[in-house]
Write a structure and sequence with these properties.
Layout (H helix, E strand, L loop, with lengths): L1 E6 L5 E4 L2 E7 L4 E3 L2 E9 L5 E9 L12 E5 L5 H4 L1 H10 L1 E6 L2 E9 L5 E8 L17 E6 L14 H16 L4 E8 L7 H14 L6 E6 L4 H6 L10 H17 L3 E4 L12 E2 L5 H8 L21 E2 L19 H9 L17 E4 L11 E3 L2
Parallel strand pairs: 1-6, 7-10, 7-16, 9-17, 10-11, 11-12, 12-13, 13-14, 14-15
Antiparallel strand pairs: 1-18, 2-3, 3-5, 4-5, 5-6, 8-9
Length: 382
């Protein structure tokens, strides 16, 4: 059995790879979303009759119930799975979330979280242990996790529990629950100083990779970007810069280790081309991965709100800056310890806003999002 999409105005007779085929309906139409599904029999140029599934699309860029679909980012700005999982599950139950515009404090977007309007959820976390017992509540949503797990100690990632005793076993349990396709390991950002040398990273990477063998197929690496606030936070670590040659050499050795444990390596928002050592440019909001998970092609543009080097596709972000308790020294989303304490003190698991409340001067607007699903012809191995 094969399946493919076909627009409603497409003729019954067309050419596929040089073969002419003509189909006839079988009496089993099913309506799903804005598509009608019919089994059809086709006779191909090799004279063999095959039954395929045809999705005949209405041609509108929306679902039949009027909903619009999106990819949800949870979250680049804070570790929601670690610290705010109760809030997130409550938002899923309520069916909507408020997000304050970080560039306009009185502008709040109301975003529907109905499964009818969410294409996929991308989680970002360093420790999703608090989510694991309730993952069944996400059964109606496609999703995957970006799970950061490095070899840094408490002087760099002070808010995290012991990696060997707690974080690695959490990664393993998560993968067992949801499958290796939906868990991506991130070993980033990489920086060097007197303590965290190339040799240290190679040893830590191999130990973690060995522990995660069979739990994921992909690991993402990047080299630290020293924004003004990260330079301030990391001043005491006395970082040293890496030359392009050092990056290439270290990346190449990481690739060799990863391959031994059944993993491929991708980079995140790197300007340097690491392709010569086996690292391709990747994306965290990964169009290909999402298509595999949801079983549907996407028409997605690059996220214009991210850096030039970033390969991510457009998404809707629901996190809040200055609320992450991990305390990572390299973090760009926490401006200061004082701001984080202030932000976290406003947390209410039942509030529609993460770590905040609606004020008298705030304006709430329904967020308009667009479908990323490809509504035109897509052939799958016909």
């Amino acid at each position: 059995m094969r399946s493919f999409y076909i627009t409603g105005n497409m003729p019954l007779k067309w050419r596929i790879g040089g073969a002419t085929s003509r189909g006839r309906d079988l009496p089993c139409p099913i309506a799903i979303g804005n598509c009608n599904i019919r089994q059809k029999k086709y006779v191909f140029h090799d004279k063999i009759e095959r039954t395929v599934i045809v999705w005949i699309h209405s041609g509108k860029n929306e679902c039949t119930d009027g909903g619009i679909k999106m990819i949800l980012s949870v979250s680049r700005r804070t570790d929601i799975p670690n610290y705010y999982s109760d809030w997130f599950y409550n938002r899923i139950k309520e069916g909507f979330v408020y997000v304050r515009n970080p560039m306009n404090a009185h502008q709040i977007s109301r975003i529907s979280l109905s499964p009818e309007v969410v294409d996929c959820i991308v989680f970002w976390t360093k420790n999703p242990a608090n989510m694991l017992a309730r993952l069944e509540e996400l059964r109606e949503y496609p999703y995957y996790f970006q799970f950061t797990l490095t070899g840094y100690g408490k002087n760099v990632e002070p808010g995290l529990p012991d990696k060997r005793r707690e974080v690695i076993p959490t990664f393993q349990r998560l993968s067992e629950k949801i499958g290796i396709q939906r868990v991506v390991w991130r070993y980033d950002p990489i920086f060097l100083n007197a303590q965290y040398t190339c040799e240290y990273h190679l040893k830590a990477f191999e130990e973690i990779a060995g522990s995660l063998e069979g739990c994921t197929r992909k690991v993402v690496i990047s080299f630290v970007d020293l924004y003004a606030k990260t330079q301030r936070n990391m001043a005491g670590l006395q970082l040293r810069s890496l030359s392009d040659e050092e990056m290439l050499c270290l990346a190449g050795e990481l690739v060799e280790i990863a391959q031994r444990y059944g993993m491929e390596v991708e980079s995140c928002a790197e300007s340097i081309d690491l392709g010569s050592v086996g690292v391709r440019h990747g994306s965290c909001i990964d169009k290909r991965r999402i298509e595999e998970i949801i079983g549907c092609k996407l028409i997605a543009d690059k996220d214009k709100n991210q850096r030039t080097e970033c390969g991510c596709f457009e998404s809707v972000e629901i996190g809040t800056y200055n609320t992450c308790g991990n305390g990572c020294k390299y973090c760009y989303a926490n401006f200061s310890d004082e701001r984080v304490r202030e932000g976290r003190s406003a947390y209410d698991a039942n509030a529609p806003l993460l770590c905040g409340s609606v004020g008298a001067e705030d304006k709430i607007t329904e967020r308009k999002v667009k479908s990323l699903k490809d509504i035109q012809l897509s052939l799958f191995d016909l």
